[in-house]
């Protein structure tokens, strides 16, 4: 056989291998893509959005969901036929135990959302219908960046903002900015000023990216990105640090997600007309209590919207601001003699939680001098408190949300 034959044969073999590999990582199927230890990493790395149904064949609820999820996958494939955009996948947790363990699956079915290869903070907990899944995908793939016509259109907002000034949308810097915005669109608003109107905001052919805090944050939190704007990792780390602040606002929408993190809450209940008190609280925490972030979640809460927990404490909106620790067993109120504007008093409050002082006094009454009393220089025992049961633990996600674990049957 001549050389040309072998060249043609080799080329065909290469094309066959390439096509087979392409189908392996981008399967054309009317059903959800079956993910295994062989293809899961490549699937995550090569798609902007991946939604995974973790199921078990013995689970009745998994069996109910499977045809619905497969039909949704077919509709999503029709809407987004281009590879690299979105994949709806499924994992058999009995046969792919390493993947189930990697994603800490404890209930079936569980639906995880991954953006640019990284797990989203929230599992999918929406309605389990074809329409709901398709709508969710469309929402996730909306452009995360709002283009602004002038500086003022992004100035007066309640949310945290990241704004970039670019020469054009085709630049590598803009594409990196969009990828980061996709990751963090639930935590920050992303704006872009493009072209001639914003050229005065940045030197020629140079991108400027800035972070602006919400109105309830101190101006000291306003930052400009100083790294390489074409470097995804450095921009993503910087934006994450700013968009996920040390002190977060808890809402009914994110309470379950924050509860799932497992740290006790140090809650600052405020009146919505009193933004200055929030600014002061954030400054105190950011200046003096950063090292405590491994022990508690620092949270602000609208005391009017969250009136129910305050009622358990015997408090009303006229008593705001109110500081509380919620341990997921009890809510402990900040001592009346302490000052929430004093970082030492706040630190002592956290210390008393972890020393067991707050819990012991709940059950046995005051027995020893607390850290708070030491801060006050007061050797008199604290008044016995009877903290109410936690209300926020009711917002925690169930370990067995949809069905029992196999070993519990």
From TrEMBL:
Short name of any one Pfam family annotated for the protein: Thioredoxin_6
Source taxon at top rank: Eukaryota
Thioredoxin domain ranges (all copies): 26-142
GO BP terms in the entry: protein folding
Gene Ontology CC annotations of this record: endoplasmic reticulum membrane; endoplasmic reticulum-Golgi intermediate compartment
Any one GO molecular-function label of the UniProt entry: protein disulfide isomerase activity
InterPro entries (UniProt xref): ERP44, Thioredoxin-like_sf, Thioredoxin_domain
Protein's UniProt name: Thioredoxin domain-containing protein
